[in-house]
């Protein structure tokens, strides 16, 4: 079997190779590729997400399967990989089982079979023995026994493990998004990417886009329709950061009069600030502060993708409509956040290849 790594003489100059687990529509892969990785394989169970992934990353071998059904000897054979040759194994196990919302706002524990997918990640680690590992997830995972066991097992296998909860807004992403990220390597400690001194704002991300009604971008034309009453309410919310609480109480919806929480609902984004966390409900102003700063509408699909950090031309399968696309975008990993940390991983991997090459020449 010919190795996917090429000849030894090219080992230092070659692109590091990676596999993306739980790939979704491809945010992680996009970030890895931008950082110089060659993603050779990916796994995603959802058909729509897999279709979107293929539209943007056609050269990556994608398994549209439940990860629990993947036989690792077959995967290695298909990718021409030997155990120990993979540079980076990266992924984000579906986080719904670990989120506070999923656990009834944190009031009590809810069993979710997706929680066991961290064990699947570990199964791949034990078989592939990658040189480095990146795991990203919601902050709630840090408090779970499975995560502590995951990190401890990596350490017992000789990995240097580092993890923290970081805000993507500090790493070039125009939204507040607190995420747990774990980096592990057998080649020494990997530092997290440097923090930005300035922030990417809503204006930086979507300020120059033409209005949807004159756009040639089909994804920018996908925008939800509202009832007459809701449309009138939106028109009266002050521009550039206004909220429903700025309206006279007689204009409040009945549900808002009965609830003192969720203050961001029917709120506008502010041009000079980062966006709120882009979720699967980002096209619906009743789900959060998802109104355009000065146009009387919610976000479009393209704007949501840009605020998540996807490139302007990134494609999404439209088979199930705009709200299914919003779900893919909200579940995606911000490519820029991944790119910056992947650059740190690539630097450590390259340093180790250079060191290994020198030892062989001595």
Describe the structure.
The chain has 362 residues and is α/β, with parallel strands linked by helices. It is built from eleven helices and seven strands. Strands 3-2-1-4-5-7-6 form a seven-stranded mixed β-sheet, sandwiched between helices. Strand 4, helix 4 (117-128) and strand 5 (132-137) form a beta-alpha-beta unit. Helix 1 crosses helix 11 (335-361), helix 4 (117-128) packs parallel to helix 5 and helix 9 (301-308) runs parallel beside helix 10 (322-331). The longest helix has 27 residues, at 335-361.
Record the SSE blueprint.
Layout: E1 17-21, H1 27-34, E2 38-43, H2 47-56, E3 61-63, H3 72-79, E4 88-91, H4 117-128, E5 132-137, H5 145-156, E6 160-167, E7 178-185, H6 202-206, H7 228-236, H8 254-257, H9 301-308, H10 322-331, H11 335-361
| CATH superfamily membership of the largest domain | Vaccinia Virus protein VP39
Helix content: 25-40%
| Shape field | elongated
**Backbone structural class:** alpha/beta
The total count of helices amounts to 11
Q: What is the CA-based Rg, rounded?
A: 22 Å
CATH fold-type name of the largest domain: Rossmann fold
For the record, the CATH class of the largest domain is Alpha Beta
Count of folded domains: 2
The CATH architecture classification of the largest domain is 3-Layer(aba) Sandwich
Largest sheet: 7 strands, mixed
The N- to C-terminal Cα distance equals: 29 Å
